[in-house]
Design a protein that fits this description.
The chain is of the alpha+beta class. The protein has helices spanning 74-86, 152-168, 175-184, 196-205, 230-244, 261-272, 278-288, 313-321, and strands at 20-22, 37-47, 50-55, 64-66, 92-101, 114-122, 135-138, 291-298, 306-311. Among the domains are: 151-196, no CATH class; 250-321, Winged helix-like DNA-binding domain superfamily/Winged helix DNA-binding domain (Arc Repressor Mutant, subunit A). 29% of the residues lie in helices and 18% in strands.
């Protein structure tokens, strides 16, 4: 898991409006009027070694709201809606994708389909308040099979894999089996942690998640459901962040100003959903000159005092040039 200086190649980035995707039928409380544009935020923090996402309505919805002409930009509209719903200011923000829900109820009206414009926002967990009682949830509550640190492998082997094998056997073609092997790392294929969206899409198609109302499958699998296309959007945000940590040190948006190397490692592991080799990780950090010691130590580590580090000035300057900012301090 390297942090290089290469070009930012995660799909959907670069300041573009995002690709237009036709969505599937979702219905329920997530339905919208035709011709509207919703701004939806995947707001991520890492707290005590767990990746967490801010949700409203009992965890079943991401913070969202309609874009209004009084907002001078999509981002300003997103910030206004999230802060009004949660009282939690946003820090770093980047656009994910634009989804057009052609099959959604009411979307066939003359005004055109409902549109979801999604954003990824990184911050540090802080107190929230709002009419919809916003709550922080670990994102593995929604995608338990993605946590390969503890439990995800057993869930895949004992429950998901047999169900997918049965689904793949419904058609007399090897195409489905190849998809399962590629996306879920079966039959000798490697596991790619950034394929979060593809795994959710396949489970949806197989009728194994609660949102799969198009077919009566064996589901739903464990995992919190969300209204409309919100869990799909959350999967997109997780995939984006997992891809980014391989070539950009974006975790500085999620950590306190000073941290131990173990805290940095735990943050990366939380996002990636898998453990990393301690010595190899620290060697990589040293080789890429991302951090520097502060001269202080953390004494509340449960063992020997651990050195405190901070990201080097050059890393912070890169953040400043990109216009990123953390709006909330931990505590």
């Amino acid at each position: 898991m390297g942090w290089g200086k290469g070009k930012d190649v995660a799909r959907g980035e670069g300041g573009k409006a995002g690709r237009l995707h036709e969505d599937r039928a979702a219905g329920g409380d997530g339905s919208r009027q035709a011709g509207t544009a919703d701004l939806i935020a995947v707001l991520v923090a890492v707290t005590e070694g767990e990746p967490r996402v801010l949700a409203i309505r009992g965890g079943g919805s991401l913070p969202s709201g309609p874009f209004q002409l009084r907002h001078h930009s999509l981002q300003s509209g997103l910030r206004a809606w999230v802060e009004s719903q949660t009282h939690h200011p946003l820090g770093y923000v980047e656009q994910l994708y634009t989804f057009a829900d052609a099959a959604r109820a009411g979307a066939a009206a003359a005004d055109g389909p409902a549109i979801s414009i999604s954003y990824l926002a990184l911050t540090r967990e802080g107190p929230t308040a709002g009419a919809d009682e916003p709550e922080w949830h670990t994102w593995y509550e929604y995608f338990p099979w993605e946590d390969r640190r503890d439990g995800g492998v057993a869930l895949l082997d004992e429950l998901i894999a047999p169900l997918l094998e049965a689904w793949a056997g419904e058609q007399d073609t090897p195409a489905r089996r190849r998809r399962v092997a590629l996306v879920f790392g079966r039959d000798g294929m490697p596991w790619h942690e950034e394929l979060v969206l593809q795994r959710y899409e396949l489970l949806w198609e197989a009728g194994l998640v609660a949102e799969s109302r198009h077919r009566a499958g064996a589901g739903p699998l464990p995992g919190l459901a969300m209204v409309g296309d919100h869990r799909r959007i959350l999967a997109t945000g997780i995939a984006r962040l997992r891809a980014k940590i391989k070539y950009r040190p974006v975790v500085f948006e999620l950590l306190a100003p000073t941290f131990t190397l173990l805290e940095l490692q735990r943050c990366v592991e939380a996002i990636a959903g898998r453990a990393v080799h301690k010595q190899n990780f620290r060697r990589l950090i040293e080789q890429q000159e991302l951090v520097e010691p502060t001269g202080a130590v953390a004494r509340e580590t449960g063992g020997r005092p651990a050195k405190l580090f901070r990201f080097r000035r050059a890393v912070l300057e890169e953040r400043a040039v990109a216009g990123t900012r953390v709006g909330v301090t931990r505590g």
